[in-house]
Amino acid sequence: MAQTISNIHVQYTVEFKKALVRLANHRYIQVTDMADALNIHPVLIYRWRKELNDGKWKKQMMPKSKGPVGPTKNDLHQKDLELKKAQTKIKQLEKQLKLRQEDIDILKKAERFFEKHRQ
Question: Is the dihedral of CA 45, 50, 56, 57 positive or negative?
Answer without folding.
Answer: positive
